[in-house]
Amino acid sequence: MSLLIILIILWAAWNLFQDAISLALDAVPKHIDIEEVRGFLLSQPGVERIHDLHIWALSTSQVALTAHLIMSQGHDQEFILNLQNAFRQKFKINHTTFQIEDRDMEEGCETNCE
Ligand SMILES: [Zn+2]
Which pLDDT does position 111 carry in this prediction? Predict the structure, then answer.
């Protein structure tokens, strides 16, 4: 009985330790596939290209994302709200920041932002 409790505590401590290490290294949280996120953003209507995609953990339970989206045709008001909701539900990312750019802005940005 007590051995089982020790094993559970060790397992929980190990998970917490791994989360803490990845937090310290500013890594993409392990439950998130950055290529899947990239594909999802590129599949959004009006999104031509993306750059400066960053995903990192704010804490062991909070995740943040920033991305620059090239949308030459502009976007409507609901676009960002829909995207925020999609990220909450699909990827469990609660803190999202999107910068919308057109082609002219992209040229100046890409070299400076990457
Ligand atoms: Zn940019």
Answer: 63
